[in-house]
Specification:
- The protein has a domain at about 1-160.
- The relative contact order is 0.02.
- The radius of gyration is 61 Å and the shape is elongated.
- α8 crosses α9 (about 330-340), α19 runs antiparallel to α20 (about 530-540) and α20 (about 530-540) crosses α21.
- It has 23 helices and no strands.
- The model is unreliable at about 375-380 (pLDDT under 50).
- Helix content is about 80%, strand content about 0%.
- The protein is an all-alpha fold.
Length: about 600
């Protein structure tokens, strides 16, 4: 309300100022009228003076006739002087009139300017008042709208909270009911399982008691079953030694299954001291009765010379017996024997036949073995895809090597389009299983940002794991990382350590790096002779820059006796391998 009163007073003041301006304008009009009257009087005075002067001249003319010429001149002079005085008075009156008119005009202009300013101020005040009124209305409308929105929001929140509370209560009730139902079901299941276990244990105990009674009477099958019960703790406390006792009794009665169980007990040292020769005695009996697993393990014994003298031909005989019965491991072993000519003539077609049979029965090693066979066949373009499929089957069964081979295929585009992300997926699986080459390539992927975001520190981690397993290139890459401070703090001595390990494995790049280190004294004491030793090894491995430095050593007699002919030989080899320094050296020679 105070704001409205203040605005009213402001408007009233503006109206009063406008009235004052109008009064000033009226006064200015009166002044102008007065000025016009003064001008009319001046004009009348000038006219009267002129008429009087004319009369004087006429009188003078009449006097001139009566008086002599001298008097006439005097009169005329006096009349001229009087006319001059009149003119001067008239000019003064005109000047005063002009000054009065200027003053009136200036006052009128000032009053007009004041009136215009007052009008502008009034208009501005009216606009400001209108804007303030509009702002007041807008603020009032916003406040009303905000209060209404707040009321609506509060009502909506309250409704949502009530609905949420209702839902939560319903969900809690449903959850509690479901939990109660599950608890009841679990209890019923547990009770049922307990009852079943009790019944099973009772039945097993009853069965064991019956088997024991029959075994005590010398029943061979009962003795074997009792041995199984003790071996697996079925209806009786587990006791491997007691199991072996009953297996032996049944075996000595000629029960073939007991031969098999007793053979594995001796083979693995379960319930009895490990004895491969005794194990093979019983396994042979089972094998001769046609037990495929015994035949396969007897084949393994002959193949690797376990408990018997190594005999690949005898191994193949037993593998064949188990293989024709559909035993996958024996089929895989027989396929390998045909592939490499172990105990049988080498026969790729026969190898593929047995490996495929084993693979179809799910043997992961057979899947793995089929990959290299197809990828190394005479027409790889026809077999590369099949090789990858066998590798994939083996990889999906968890074998590290085929996982690495799949990664390698996607990394280099062997039989498939290059796909670094897919390669990294398989490399990682193989690397986590400890495969050194997979670890190296995974390091390369992180080092170069192929298939994964570039991460030098992660690259160093995988290079280190592969390097510790003896991977030559991983050792070189790790040395380079320490040399350049990529992904790890720069450390020339550590770099030289890994360069040396890789160089000793025959890689030309680390041999050159080690030669360079000794040449310039980077991380090691400078030693030109030692440098030449490593440069020579790298140069003989075809390293162009090493060939150039070896030529330089012979050229200048550094670390070796000077020999210009030998220097020229190494310069030429380096130039042939594309080294610009060597090419430039030969051009200047």
């Amino acid at each position: 309300m105070r704001e409205i009163i203040a605005e009213y007073e402001t408007l009233n003041s503006a109206i009063k100022r406008a009235a004052a301006v109008r009064a000033a304008a009226e006064r200015a009009a009166a002044v102008r009228a007065t000025a016009e009257k003064v001008a009319a009087m001046r004009a009348a005075a000038e006219k009267a003076a002129a008429e009087k002067a004319a009369a004087v001249r006429a009188a003078a003319r009449w006097a001139a006739a009566e008086k002599d010429a001298a008097e006439m001149v005097a009169v005329e002079r006096a009349a001229a002087e009087k006319a001059a005085a009149v003119r001067a008075a008239a000019e003064r009156v005109a000047a005063e009139k002009a000054a009065a008119e200027r003053a009136v005009a200036e006052r009128a202009a000032a009053e007009r300017a004041a009136a215009e300013r007052a009008a502008a101020e009034k208009a501005a005040a009216e606009r400001a008042a209108a804007e303030r009124a509009a702002a007041v209305r807008a603020a009032a409308e916003r406040a009303v709208a905000e209060r209404a929105a707040a009321v609506r929001a509060a009502a909506e929140r309250a409704a949502e909270e009530r609905a949420a509370a209702k839902r939560a209560a319903a969900e809690r009730a449903a959850t509690e009911k479901a939990a109660a139902v599950r608890a009841a079901a679990d209890k019923a299941a547990a009770d049922k399982a307990a009852a079943e276990r009790a019944a099973a244990e009772k039945a097993a105990a009853k069965r064991v008691a019956a088997e024991k009674a029959a075994a005590d009477k010398g029943h061979a099958e009962a003795r074997y079953n009792l041995g199984n019960a003790y071996f697996f703790g079925d209806g009786v406390a587990e006791d491997k030694a007691e199991a072996v006792k009953w297996f032996r009794l049944a075996a000595e009665q000629g029960y073939a299954k007991a031969w098999l169980s007793l053979g594995y007990a001796f083979y693995l040292g379960d319930g009895v001291e490990e004895n491969k020769a005794e194990a093979l005695k019983w396994l042979r009996l089972a094998a001769e009765q046609g037990y495929a697993n015994a035949q396969c393990d007897l084949g393994n014994a002959y193949y690797f010379g376990i408990g018997v003298e190594e005999n690949k031909f005898e191994a193949v005989k037993w593998y064949s017996m188990a293989a024709v019965q559909g035993f996958p491991e024996a089929q895989y072993k027989l396929g390998k024997a045909y592939r490499f000519g172990d105990g049988v003539a080498e026969d790729e077609a026969e190898a593929k036949k047995w490996l495929r049979l084993a693979a179809w029965l799910g043997d992961a090693n057979a899947h793995d073995a089929l990959g290299p066979i197809h990828s190394s066949s005479d027409r790889p373009e026809n077999n590369q895809f099949e090789a990858l499929e066998w590798y994939r089957l083996a990889a999906e069964q968890g074998l590290a090597y085929p996982r690495y081979k799949l990664g390698e295929a996607y990394w280099f585009g062997n039989g498939v389009a290059i796909d670094y992300a897919e390669a990294v997926k398989w490399f990682l699986l193989a690397a986590e299983q400890g495969h050194d080459k997979a670890r190296f390539y995974l390091g390369c992927a992180y080092d170069e940002g192929k298939g994964v975001a570039q991460d030098k520190a992660e690259a160093v981690k995988w290079f280190l794991l592969a390097a510790e397993q003896g991977h030559d290139k991983a050792r070189f890459y790790l040395g380079r990382a320490y040399d350049e401070g990529n992904g790890v703090a720069q450390d020339k001595a550590e770099a030289d350590k890994w360069y040396r390990l890789a160089a000793e494995q025959g890689l030309a790049d680390p041999q050159y790096k080690l030669g360079e280190a000794y040449w310039f004294g980077k991380g090691v004491a400078q030693d030109k002779a030692e440098s030449v030793k490593w440069l020579r090894l790298a140069a003989e491995g075809g390293h162009a820059k090493a060939q150039f430095y070896l030529g330089n050593a012979y050229d200048n007699g550094i670390g070796v006796e000077q020999n210009k002919a030998e220097a020229g030989k190494w310069y030429r080899r380096s130039a042939d391998n594309g080294d610009k320094d060597a090419q430039s050296k030969l051009l200047r020679a």
